[in-house]
UniProtKB/TrEMBL annotation:
Domain SnoaL-like positions: 27-134
Gene3D superfamilies: 3.10.450.50
Pfam families registered for this protein in UniProt: SnoaL_2
The protein's name: Nuclear transport factor 2 family protein
UniProt organism field: Fodinibius salsisoli
Length: 159
């Protein structure tokens, strides 16, 4: 009978824990930057130059070697152009090593109409070597905040 090597098990567990901590840190920095209105370049610095990106607003997953990074920047810039006082409320975050799934609610005010809106999102991240290398955004349809009275308490948005 082979003896268990608890040292090896400990090393694996420690590496997974440290990796999960790095993943959590990077993701928290992403949402902090989005909530505080950080510059697009600051937000983009969290992403690998060859990030694989998908958003329903950008038809299909990007070719990581050609345009993922550009599309992430465009997505962030579009959101900042269209919305004012963006606020993400994280409902839950599940992290396992380099992989993470975040459920979040967005409240914001549309610049064009001034209308307050609400959306629910699911984000899927892969963080490798401290950079986001895979980023997926899934969302529901936009709802007017006035139609969601139970969500108005999260509406930390100004006129």
């Amino acid at each position: 009978m082979k003896a268990q090597n608890y040292t090896d098990e400990f090393k694996k567990a420690f590496i997974r824990k440290v990796t999960s901590d790095v993943t959590r840190y990077v993701i928290e920095k992403y949402f902090e930057a989005m909530n505080t209105g950080a510059e697009s370049d600051t937000i983009a610095s969290l992403f690998s130059k060859d990030v694989n990106f998908y958003s329903p607003d950008h038809d299909k997953p990007t070719n990581a070697m050609t345009d993922g990074y550009k599309k992430v920047i465009n997505c962030v810039q579009e959101l900042k152009i269209k919305m004012k006082s963006i606020f993400f409320n994280i409902k839950s975050m599940d992290i396992d090593g380099e992989e993470a799934v975040v459920l979040a609610k967005l409240t914001a005010r549309q610049r064009k109409t001034g209308e307050a809106i609400y959306e629910e999102f699911s984000f899927q991240f892969t963080v490798h070597n401290g950079e986001i290398t895979r980023f997926r955004i899934y969302k529901n349809d936009i709802t007017r905040l006035e139609d969601k009275p139970e969500e108005q308490k999260y509406a930390n948005i100004s006129n």
